[in-house]
Each structure stands twice: as C-alpha cells, then as structure tokens.
C-alpha cells in the first residue's frame, strides 16, 4: 500500500496514517481540521483519510487508503509510483556501488522491458563503466569534543556532522578551536564558521574547517590537491556541523576537538540503463535522460533525493510509456533513446561514458535531460545548455512548456548531464527549476515538496514537443 500526504474527503472524524504504519483518529469537524492541519503536518504524516463515523481501523480504513492510492495512480501513474519507489528505504539514497543503486538499475531496466523498449545497442539495456566507490558503511569518520573538565563527547555522523568534502589522505588531528577568522594562531586551530560565506577566506589557513548548516547535507566530492599560485598543496579538510553542535562548541568549557577521516575505496562497475524506440531514420536520435543516482546516507540519515532526481526519473519513465504507445500507432522519424544516467554526482561519469559510445553511431543527436523538477516552491524552469549550439532547441521547448503554464527563465543554468553532450559539440539541454538548491543534497528533499500536477505538465510538454517537432535537427 502506497502512502502520501493528502486529504481525501471531509466528514466527521479523521484518521491519520503515520510513517511507521500507526493510525490515530482525530474527532471533530473534518473540514476545519483539514484546513488547520494541512500546513502544520510534519513529514511523518503520510496520508489523511476522513470518514463519516468511527470504524474499526484494521478492517475498514485500508479500503479508504487503497481507494485514495488507486485514484492518485489513475491520475499520475508512474510519476507517483516511480517517485515512491526510488525514494523508499530499500533504495536508500541510490548511491552508486550500493545495493540501493543496484535496485534502482534493476527497477528501471525491468520497466523498460515491460513497456517494450528495445535494448539501446540491440544487445543489452545496461552500459557499464568503472568508478571508485566509497561505501558509506566502510568509511572511518569521527569528531570528538574535549571539554576542559576532562570529559569528551563523540559527535554522531548524520545527526551532528557530515562531510563537506573528502580528502584522499588520512586525516587525524587534535587542535584547539577558534571562531575568529582573523585569529593570529589560526594555522594551529580548527576554525568554526557560522555559515559557508567565509569558506574562501579560511579553508587554506586553518588546520580544518567546521561549517554550521541549518540542514546537514552530504558531498561525494573527493579532493586530493588544490592549486595555490601555480603550486599543488593538500586540499583542506572540512565537516558540516549542526546548529546544536555549533552551540556546544561555542560554550566556554570546550578545550579542543579531534577529527579523523580515512577513505576506503573500491573500484566497481556501475551501470547506466538505456532503452530504445526505433524510428524510420536510424541516423537520427533524440536522447531523453535523467540521472538515477543520489547521495546515499550518512549514519542513520538517508538522502532520498526526491526533487533531485527521483522526480526527473519519473518524468522520463512517464515519457517512455507515452512515446512508446505513440510509436505503435505511428513510428517516429528518428530513434528515441531513454537513458537513466548513473554517477551524475561523481563528475557525470555515466553520461560521459554513454556519449562516447553513441556519438559515432548517429549523424544527428540531441539530448533533453530532466534534473530537479516539481518542487512546489521551485520557481521557473531554467533550460541549461550552451547558448551557441542550443538556441533553437531551447526556443522550441519553451513554446511547449508555456502551453502547460510552466514558466521559463533565461538565467544561466546549472551543471548536469547535458554537458557531456555539449563537450562533444552535440546539442543538449537540461530542464530544471531555479529554486531547488536549498533542499537538494540534504534529508529535507522529501515527497511532500512535490507538485505532481507540475511534474505531469513537464512530461506532457516534452511529449508534445517530441511528437510535433522531435524529428528536427535544430541547427
């Protein structure tokens, strides 16, 4: 049974199904309760069902919830099903090299097969590439606080701190702390920052940097050396810390902190997932893509990656269904390839590997990539991609987004898998919302943030564009 925040109907008593499967009944006016609670529900409330009488929970509530699920699925189909599956506990943040990412690859491959896509290369739906993997459970990380009375406190990974960046070398240090970026002895201390604004002024000065974050995020960026006036030197060591830990460190009774980090890596084969709708002209192809990976977990915190990028993958899956059905009625003029790119969070290794494989197989290629769409307060779409080669493509896609009331803003875009195409002088753009960075890469990226009507509009816009103008080259 799927669960999602929604008010079904408004009668007399309200039953709330909590994330752990518990249910409570709230008596009172359903409409009044629904309106007052709708804005205040926390992320643990997964569904609200209102019934006209007090009834046995075990026997009679389940049909109401299943009816709700059936109604939503009829409207949103794989858009909802895909998001809920990809962000589940089992997929555990979809980090490459982990079981959750493997399940993601299997899920999308099975979906492509069931819909009826052909293997992208007529042999397999999978394309492998090599990547150094740092499994979260195998890394050695520690942060210990030493108090002046001789006691210590072990900070908890995921709750008190996470990685800001990774360094290849083993780090082990104990040093006094300072909050003053102009401290004369900063080179012998760990600097504590109230936010990221001052990083550039101190990261190369202090022993290490601890940065307060409102919500702890995660990073897969691995640093070894940085360039300083033309010379390479060791990269700085940095952790993110919580508000609570920041306040603890502010107390006058803190003597020093100990930090430890040792990366344990293993090279593994990671897979993109790709399927094809054959067209009349096998010299032309449009690649529709979305990255399937995310950041995994830290301690007990899962980075579910809902906006980033389960929603984008769900759009791609919805387009698989729609465009395959259309191709049965009337074959397209060109091939259409759907790719779930892996390892976008690791220097876009997946899309880099894929474009190298297909660039010589087609005379005409362009890419539409979906990355970070559907946030309720995400603002307008930005169509990212090099202006010189993508101007016509951007202009034409914008027309179809407008039909569904989706605004496009012409600001500079962001980095995503379209860049792997652009580097090869191949047209490629990414559709992503402007105001999503405050929730990406942290545990607050949850299903409650999504507007599924908006996501469906993005999918229908791309579908209409492909059906009407997808055969063009956009020179």
TrEMBL record:
GO terms for biological process: proteolysis. Gene3D superfamilies: 3.50.30.30, Zn peptidases (3.40.630.10). One of its GO terms (molecular function) is metalloexopeptidase activity. Pfam families: Peptidase_M28. Residues 272-456 form the Peptidase M28 domain. SUPFAM superfamilies: Zn-dependent exopeptidases (SSF53187). This is Peptidase M28.
